[in-house]
Give the backbone structure.
Amino acid sequence: MSSPPVFFVIYGETLEGQRFRPSDWAERLAGVLAPYRPVGALGGHLTYSPYVVPRTINDTKVVVIDHRLRDIEPLAWKFVQDFAQENRLKTAECLTDVIKPT
């Protein structure tokens, strides 16, 4: 039996409570990571990786990152971690892909 996926969520809100800009930051970040897909998965034109998906939760833009990204491309994982830290964005880790920020 395999363990359930774990997700890292980056919220479009800084630790100081300010909305992160630009307004399309989540789509841009997910777009940069679109090439990282499961082995054998086909990517169509303008599609996101199933491991890095932009969403909106309670009117806040977020990017939900599956921890499996770390296994297939550690540098991409480091990139998203650094992005959140350098921009002082709220983050959370969870077993489902929709949670409240910490």
Summary: Residues 52 and 69 are 8 Å apart (CA to CA). DSSP finds three helices and four strands in the chain. The domain at 7-37+46-94 is CATH 3.30.70.2340 (Alpha-Beta Plaits). The helical segments are 25-32, 68-72, 74-86.
